[in-house]
Specification:
This protein is an alpha+beta fold. The protein has helices spanning 47-53, 107-110, 142-145, 148-161, 179-190, 202-210, 225-232; strands spanning 6-11, 22-27, 35-44, 71-79, 91-94, 125-129, 133-135, 171-175, 194-199, 215-218. It folds into two domains: 6-146, Medium-chain alcohol dehydrogenases, catalytic domain (Quinone Oxidoreductase, Chain A, domain 1); 154-233, Rossmann fold, CATH 3.40.50. This is RNA pyrophosphohydrolase nucleoside polyphosphate hydrolase)).
Length: 237
Protein backbone atom coordinates (compact mmCIF):
# COMPACT_ATOMS: atom_id res chain seq x y z
CA UNK A 1 0.00 0.00 0.00
CA UNK A 2 1.36 3.39 -0.99
CA UNK A 3 2.02 5.73 1.91
CA UNK A 4 0.09 9.01 2.04
CA UNK A 5 1.97 12.11 0.97
CA UNK A 6 -0.41 14.65 2.52
CA UNK A 7 -2.50 14.91 5.66
CA UNK A 8 -5.59 16.87 6.61
CA UNK A 9 -4.98 18.85 9.78
CA UNK A 10 -6.55 21.56 11.88
CA UNK A 11 -4.58 24.76 12.41
CA UNK A 12 -5.06 27.93 14.46
CA UNK A 13 -4.35 30.95 12.24
CA UNK A 14 -5.55 33.19 15.10
CA UNK A 15 -5.38 32.58 18.82
CA UNK A 16 -8.55 33.86 20.43
CA UNK A 17 -10.54 30.63 20.65
CA UNK A 18 -11.33 27.27 19.08
CA UNK A 19 -13.71 28.94 16.62
CA UNK A 20 -10.60 29.82 14.58
CA UNK A 21 -9.76 26.17 13.86
CA UNK A 22 -9.22 25.80 10.12
CA UNK A 23 -9.09 22.48 8.27
CA UNK A 24 -6.15 22.46 5.87
CA UNK A 25 -4.16 19.95 3.86
CA UNK A 26 -0.40 19.83 4.21
CA UNK A 27 2.54 17.65 3.21
CA UNK A 28 3.75 14.80 5.40
CA UNK A 29 7.48 15.37 6.01
CA UNK A 30 9.87 12.67 4.75
CA UNK A 31 10.46 9.97 7.35
CA UNK A 32 13.88 10.10 9.02
CA UNK A 33 15.67 6.88 9.93
CA UNK A 34 14.69 7.15 13.62
CA UNK A 35 11.05 8.11 13.09
CA UNK A 36 7.71 6.40 12.54
CA UNK A 37 4.57 7.53 10.76
CA UNK A 38 1.37 7.19 12.77
CA UNK A 39 -2.18 7.16 11.48
CA UNK A 40 -4.06 9.07 14.16
CA UNK A 41 -7.12 7.18 15.41
CA UNK A 42 -8.12 9.30 18.42
CA UNK A 43 -7.24 12.69 19.93
CA UNK A 44 -8.30 13.91 23.37
CA UNK A 45 -8.70 17.60 24.14
CA UNK A 46 -7.96 19.20 27.49
CA UNK A 47 -7.85 22.57 29.19
CA UNK A 48 -4.31 23.24 27.94
CA UNK A 49 -5.60 23.12 24.36
CA UNK A 50 -8.18 25.80 25.18
CA UNK A 51 -5.48 28.01 26.72
CA UNK A 52 -3.30 27.56 23.61
CA UNK A 53 -6.24 28.42 21.35
CA UNK A 54 -6.85 31.61 23.34
CA UNK A 55 -3.20 32.67 23.15
CA UNK A 56 -2.84 32.40 26.94
CA UNK A 57 -0.32 29.56 27.16
CA UNK A 58 2.78 30.82 28.95
CA UNK A 59 5.21 27.88 28.65
CA UNK A 60 7.73 27.90 25.83
CA UNK A 61 7.82 29.93 22.63
CA UNK A 62 4.78 30.57 20.46
CA UNK A 63 4.24 29.17 16.95
CA UNK A 64 2.12 30.83 14.32
CA UNK A 65 -0.63 28.75 12.68
CA UNK A 66 0.03 25.82 15.01
CA UNK A 67 -1.63 22.40 14.81
CA UNK A 68 -3.08 22.05 18.34
CA UNK A 69 -3.40 18.97 20.52
CA UNK A 70 -0.85 16.96 22.50
CA UNK A 71 -2.64 13.70 23.33
CA UNK A 72 -3.41 11.02 20.79
CA UNK A 73 -3.25 7.32 20.02
CA UNK A 74 -2.68 5.80 16.62
CA UNK A 75 -1.38 2.99 14.46
CA UNK A 76 2.10 2.81 12.96
CA UNK A 77 1.94 2.72 9.15
CA UNK A 78 5.66 3.18 8.38
CA UNK A 79 8.97 2.91 10.27
CA UNK A 80 12.38 4.44 9.59
CA UNK A 81 15.25 2.12 8.68
CA UNK A 82 17.00 2.49 12.06
CA UNK A 83 13.91 2.02 14.22
CA UNK A 84 14.01 -1.02 16.52
CA UNK A 85 11.21 -2.41 18.66
CA UNK A 86 8.38 -1.05 16.54
CA UNK A 87 6.67 -2.39 13.45
CA UNK A 88 3.86 -1.51 11.11
CA UNK A 89 0.51 -2.22 12.75
CA UNK A 90 1.65 -1.49 16.32
CA UNK A 91 -0.62 0.76 18.36
CA UNK A 92 1.24 3.65 19.97
CA UNK A 93 0.95 7.03 21.64
CA UNK A 94 3.59 9.78 21.88
CA UNK A 95 4.99 11.58 24.89
CA UNK A 96 3.60 15.03 25.63
CA UNK A 97 7.11 16.40 24.98
CA UNK A 98 9.08 14.53 22.32
CA UNK A 99 12.50 15.15 23.90
CA UNK A 100 11.50 14.67 27.54
CA UNK A 101 11.34 10.93 28.20
CA UNK A 102 12.62 10.88 31.80
CA UNK A 103 13.98 13.10 34.56
CA UNK A 104 13.20 16.69 35.45
CA UNK A 105 11.50 19.00 32.97
CA UNK A 106 13.88 21.32 31.13
CA UNK A 107 13.82 24.26 28.74
CA UNK A 108 14.75 21.82 25.98
CA UNK A 109 11.72 19.72 26.82
CA UNK A 110 9.37 22.68 26.51
CA UNK A 111 10.75 23.30 23.02
CA UNK A 112 9.30 19.97 21.84
CA UNK A 113 5.89 19.98 23.54
CA UNK A 114 3.20 18.89 21.09
CA UNK A 115 0.52 21.45 20.28
CA UNK A 116 2.68 24.34 21.54
CA UNK A 117 5.26 25.24 20.55
CA UNK A 118 5.56 22.53 17.87
CA UNK A 119 2.72 21.26 15.70
CA UNK A 120 0.47 18.86 17.58
CA UNK A 121 -1.72 15.88 16.83
CA UNK A 122 -5.02 17.24 15.50
CA UNK A 123 -4.16 15.69 12.15
CA UNK A 124 -4.70 12.49 10.17
CA UNK A 125 -1.04 11.43 10.12
CA UNK A 126 1.85 12.38 12.40
CA UNK A 127 5.60 11.73 12.21
CA UNK A 128 7.07 10.97 15.66
CA UNK A 129 10.60 9.96 16.79
CA UNK A 130 10.49 6.31 17.84
CA UNK A 131 12.08 7.05 21.23
CA UNK A 132 9.07 9.22 22.14
CA UNK A 133 6.49 6.44 21.74
CA UNK A 134 4.90 4.02 24.18
CA UNK A 135 2.64 1.07 23.43
CA UNK A 136 -1.11 1.39 23.79
CA UNK A 137 -2.17 -1.21 26.41
CA UNK A 138 -3.93 -4.14 24.77
CA UNK A 139 -7.08 -3.72 26.86
CA UNK A 140 -7.55 -0.06 25.89
CA UNK A 141 -9.31 1.45 22.91
CA UNK A 142 -7.64 4.22 20.93
CA UNK A 143 -10.06 6.69 22.51
CA UNK A 144 -9.18 5.60 26.05
CA UNK A 145 -5.44 5.60 25.38
CA UNK A 146 -5.53 9.07 23.84
CA UNK A 147 -6.42 10.55 27.25
CA UNK A 148 -3.23 9.33 28.94
CA UNK A 149 -0.13 11.23 27.72
CA UNK A 150 -0.64 14.58 29.48
CA UNK A 151 -3.40 14.49 32.10
CA UNK A 152 -2.84 10.95 33.36
CA UNK A 153 0.95 11.21 33.47
CA UNK A 154 0.70 14.57 35.27
CA UNK A 155 -1.46 12.98 37.96
CA UNK A 156 0.82 9.94 38.18
CA UNK A 157 3.94 12.10 38.61
CA UNK A 158 2.25 14.15 41.33
CA UNK A 159 1.21 11.11 43.36
CA UNK A 160 3.67 8.36 42.51
CA UNK A 161 6.45 9.78 40.35
CA UNK A 162 8.97 11.14 42.82
CA UNK A 163 9.64 12.45 46.29
CA UNK A 164 7.19 11.11 48.85
CA UNK A 165 5.14 8.53 46.98
CA UNK A 166 1.51 7.89 47.80
CA UNK A 167 0.79 4.76 49.81
CA UNK A 168 -2.20 2.92 51.17
CA UNK A 169 -3.78 4.64 54.16
CA UNK A 170 -2.84 8.15 53.03
CA UNK A 171 -5.48 10.82 52.57
CA UNK A 172 -5.53 12.74 49.28
CA UNK A 173 -7.37 15.99 48.57
CA UNK A 174 -8.41 16.31 44.92
CA UNK A 175 -9.45 19.83 43.97
CA UNK A 176 -11.87 19.93 41.08
CA UNK A 177 -13.05 17.34 38.58
CA UNK A 178 -11.00 18.12 35.48
CA UNK A 179 -8.87 15.63 33.58
CA UNK A 180 -5.85 15.63 35.90
CA UNK A 181 -8.09 15.52 38.97
CA UNK A 182 -10.13 12.55 37.74
CA UNK A 183 -6.99 10.57 36.94
CA UNK A 184 -5.55 11.54 40.33
CA UNK A 185 -8.71 10.30 42.01
CA UNK A 186 -8.52 6.92 40.29
CA UNK A 187 -4.80 6.50 40.97
CA UNK A 188 -5.25 7.42 44.63
CA UNK A 189 -8.14 4.99 45.10
CA UNK A 190 -6.17 2.22 43.37
CA UNK A 191 -3.27 2.92 45.76
CA UNK A 192 -5.49 2.43 48.80
CA UNK A 193 -5.76 6.08 49.80
CA UNK A 194 -8.78 7.85 51.24
CA UNK A 195 -9.86 10.52 48.75
CA UNK A 196 -11.57 13.86 49.39
CA UNK A 197 -12.90 15.62 46.28
CA UNK A 198 -14.07 19.22 45.94
CA UNK A 199 -16.24 20.53 43.11
CA UNK A 200 -18.87 23.18 42.41
CA UNK A 201 -21.17 20.54 40.88
CA UNK A 202 -23.11 17.90 42.81
CA UNK A 203 -23.51 15.95 39.57
CA UNK A 204 -19.73 15.77 39.14
CA UNK A 205 -19.31 14.84 42.79
CA UNK A 206 -21.64 11.89 42.23
CA UNK A 207 -19.35 10.71 39.44
CA UNK A 208 -16.38 11.11 41.78
CA UNK A 209 -18.21 8.99 44.35
CA UNK A 210 -18.74 6.23 41.79
CA UNK A 211 -15.00 6.34 41.06
CA UNK A 212 -14.19 5.74 44.72
CA UNK A 213 -14.06 9.14 46.44
CA UNK A 214 -15.02 8.78 50.11
CA UNK A 215 -15.64 12.43 51.02
CA UNK A 216 -17.39 14.95 48.75
CA UNK A 217 -17.42 18.73 49.26
CA UNK A 218 -19.32 21.23 47.11
CA UNK A 219 -17.30 24.40 47.56
CA UNK A 220 -20.21 26.58 46.40
CA UNK A 221 -22.52 25.38 49.14
CA UNK A 222 -19.58 25.01 51.55
CA UNK A 223 -17.44 28.11 50.88
CA UNK A 224 -15.19 27.35 53.86
CA UNK A 225 -14.43 23.95 52.38
CA UNK A 226 -10.94 23.87 53.92
CA UNK A 227 -12.53 23.73 57.37
CA UNK A 228 -14.51 20.68 56.28
CA UNK A 229 -11.29 19.06 55.07
CA UNK A 230 -9.69 19.68 58.48
CA UNK A 231 -12.67 18.05 60.19
CA UNK A 232 -12.39 15.00 57.95
CA UNK A 233 -8.64 14.68 58.56
CA UNK A 234 -8.80 15.45 62.29
CA UNK A 235 -6.92 18.70 61.86
CA UNK A 236 -4.20 17.47 59.49
CA UNK A 237 -3.57 19.88 56.62
Amino acid sequence: MALPQTTREYRLPKVDGFHNLTLQEGPIPPLKSNEVLLKVHAVSLQYRDLVVARGQYSFGPKKEDVVPGSDMAGEIVAVGEDVAGWQVGDRAMPNFSLSHVFGEASDEGWQTALGAPIDGVLTEYKVIPAHALVHVPAHMSYEEASTLPCAAVTAYNALLGGGRKLKGGDTVLIQGTGGVSIFGLQLAVASGATVIVTSSSDKKLEIAKKLGAKHLINYKTTPNWEEEVLKITNGRA
